[in-house]
Amino acid sequence: MKLAVFDFDSTLMDGETIDFLAVPLGLEKEVAAITERAMAGELDFFKSLVARVALLEGLSKSKVDEICANLPMMPGAAEVISGLKERGYKVICFSGGFRSATSPAAKRLGIDADFSNVLHDDEGILTGKVGGDMMFGFSKGDMIVRLQNLLGIDRVDTLVVGDGANDLSMFEHADTRVAFCAKPILKEQATHVVDIKDLREILKIEGLNR
């Protein structure tokens, strides 16, 4: 058994979930500006997440679910997941974003499990609060070590794919590290860099079939 862990926003999905959620509130530019700085490593991830989610207060949960059901997947997302599973990988999604988005996508794409955050609502209206599995900059690294221990998988059999600074912590625990259309801070720590929006490029990496 081998382990493949993908980031969600701007990796499996073509965009940032929270930016899409901000559109009905007319706050997409404000939210996107914070997202950009967080992914570049210029802001503490936890602080940036809390600040952005606070701006979503008042949005209906039904609207969140509607938006998340229609998020655009990255070209090649379904193919790379099926291709890796054929090669014996368990495929997992980690996201500093939200379960409202990752769970439907995981079901659609055949992902084995997703770990992300939950937007709190009160009687169907977002309160601007958030909690969950991926709240901090270290969360992905912490969770990947737990999964490796649980599944008995070493870092040599671990593939990770991401695009931003909050993926750095999981890069520390994998021998195959793919920076996908990524920020410079992540490319510096990658073993492989893919700069075109096609996840099928990952299947060309040597050693995935061993």
SSE order and pairing:
Elements (H helix, E strand, L loop, with lengths): L1 E6 L9 H6 L5 H12 L5 H10 L6 H8 L8 H10 L2 E10 H11 L3 E10 L2 E8 L6 H13 L6 E5 L5 H4 L4 E5 L3 H4 L4 E3 L16
Parallel strand pairs: 1-2, 1-5, 2-3, 5-6, 6-7
Antiparallel strand pairs: 3-4
Helix pairs in contact: 2-3, 4-6
Could you describe the 3D structure shown?
Helix content is 37%, strand content 22%. The chain is of the alpha/beta class and 210 residues long. It has one domain (2-204): 3-Layer(aba) Sandwich (Rossmann fold), CATH 3.40.50.1000. The protein has a 7-stranded mixed β-sheet with strand order 4-3-2-1-5-6-7, with helices on both faces. Helix 8 links the parallel strand 5 and strand 6. The longest helix is centred in the last third of the chain and has 13 residues, at 139-151.
What's the CATH H-level superfamily name? Answer: HAD superfamily/HAD-like
How far the N terminus sits from the C terminus, by CA atoms, comes to 11 Å
Estimated radius of gyration: 16 Å
Beta-strand residue fraction:
15-25%
Overall domain count: 1
CATH fold title: Rossmann fold
Q: What portion of residues is helical? A: 25-40%
Order of helices and strands: EHHHHHEHEEHEHEHE
Sheet bearing the most strands, described?
A: 7 strands, mixed
CATH class term? Alpha Beta
Q: What sort of overall outline do the alpha carbons produce when their principal axes are compared? A: globular
Number of helices: 9
- Whole-number average pLDDT? 95
Number of strands: 7
Low-confidence stretches: none
Provide the spatial order of strands within the biggest beta sheet.
4-3-2-1-5-6-7
- Would you identify the CATH architecture? 3-Layer(aba) Sandwich
The computed structural class is alpha/beta
